[in-house]
């Protein structure tokens, strides 16, 4: 069984409550799909708790999320210029709070995180195969979801950007395509796709006093959403 978390956002109390819940389960792998930090002053403590788990806890596999990306941009560790996305959504004051909440040493650690993980036929990622900022939900166009899955040739995509829990299925089928140019029309091609799923894993710290996360059984493809109150 896998436990899949996202959206801690520096909420240490929520994260520790989820860790205690996980301890009661038979979990083989622990994944954290980004947004470890936020504008919460406990962000540093959350990162330390993740980096140095207790002796009786699983060592999590962690990938980068939206808030980590904003930290990296703020500290000039990527080619992107100003943190315009952060300022547009939250304002300059939030950018200052984020700078104060996460140390430069921690930001360097965040910058080394993976973009996502491919395990079996599953992609575990914060946003999508296009960007950490892209928010996939059941309202997203099926064609767009199919494209994001096809890019990595997987059948299950677990994402945390929306902060919601959902299990959305794309039924198996086939797609016929034809390319027409100025010179000629190419013969139609048919692509067959297997059944695919988009799974929102929830948010641990975004919506106090409720933390949500996801359990996944890779042997049966079973998904269970768990809620912890703290």
Written overview of the protein:
By secondary structure, the chain is α/β, with parallel strands linked by helices. The strands form three sheets. Strands 3-2-1-11-12 form a five-stranded mixed β-sheet. The protein has a five-stranded mixed β-sheet with strand order 4-5-6-10-7, covered by helices on one side. It has a two-stranded antiparallel ribbon with strand order 8-9. It has seven helices and twelve strands. The mean pLDDT is 92. This is Metallophosphatase. GO terms for molecular function: phosphatase activity. InterPro entries: Ap4A_hydrolase, Metallo-depent_PP-like.
Brief write-up:
The protein has 230 residues and is α/β, with parallel strands linked by helices. It has helices spanning 12-23, 43-51, 66-74, 84-90, 92-101, 104-111, 142-150, and strands at residues 2-5, 29-33, 61-63, 116-119, 122-125, 156-159, 165-170, 173-177, 189-193, 196-201, 210-217, 222-229. The strands form three sheets. The chain has a five-stranded mixed β-sheet.
